[in-house]
């Protein structure tokens, strides 16, 4: 016997199609009063099959631009204008981290890395100026 809805080959004793969940016409009739229960079950089976056939939505969250900017500036501060870019990168990364926690954007790890790098650059520059290793000229 074949399902009239999708054409799947079925056993003669099956009440519902194993592929689409539709009730098969050759099914044994149920007593009065039970029909509505079977209809509800049939609808639930159909909904479940339809939900199972739906594609899974990909995670479309994008990276927060403030986080990316802060991280890049923190990295650049390692090489040039450290005393200015270090704090700017750390602050932008902190702002981005707050934004990421409030929205559904990506970038928490980049924000934390930007903050750590920015603060590390500041500490290294302060130690360098204090010990005379780094000079203003």
What does this entry look like structurally?
The protein has 137 residues and is mostly helical. Helix content is 55%, strand content 0%. It has helices at 35-53, 65-76, 82-102, 108-131. It is rod-shaped. The termini are far apart. Residues 27-36 have low confidence and may be disordered.
SSE order and pairing:
Blueprint: H1 35-53, H2 65-76, H3 82-102, H4 108-131
Helix pairs in contact: 2-3, 2-4, 3-4
Order of helices and strands: HHHH
Mean pLDDT value = 80
Structural class: mainly alpha
- State the separation between the terminal residues, measured CA to CA: 91 Å
Q: How much is the radius of gyration in Å? A: 32 Å
Q: Which terms would index this structure?
A:
single chain, mainly alpha, 2 domains, rod-shaped
Give a short synopsis of this structure.
This protein has 137 residues and is an all-alpha fold. It has 2 domains: 1-54, no CATH class; 65-131, no CATH class. The protein has 4 helices and no strands.
């Amino acid at each position: 016997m074949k399902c009239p809805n999708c054409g799947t080959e079925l056993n003669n004793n099956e009440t519902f199609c194993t592929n689409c969940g539709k009730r098969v016409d050759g099914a044994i009739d149920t007593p009065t009063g039970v029909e509505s229960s079977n209809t509800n079950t049939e609808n639930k089976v159909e909904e479940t099959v339809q939900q199972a056939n739906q594609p899974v939505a990909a995670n479309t969250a994008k990276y927060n631009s403030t986080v990316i900017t802060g991280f890049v500036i923190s990295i650049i501060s390692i090489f040039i204008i450290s005393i200015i870019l270090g704090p700017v990168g750390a602050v932008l990364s902190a702002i981005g981290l707050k934004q990421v926690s409030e929205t559904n954007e990506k970038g928490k790890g980049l924000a934390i890395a930007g903050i750590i790098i920015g603060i590390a650059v500041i500490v290294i520059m302060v130690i360098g100026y204090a010990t005379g290793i780094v000079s203003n000229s």
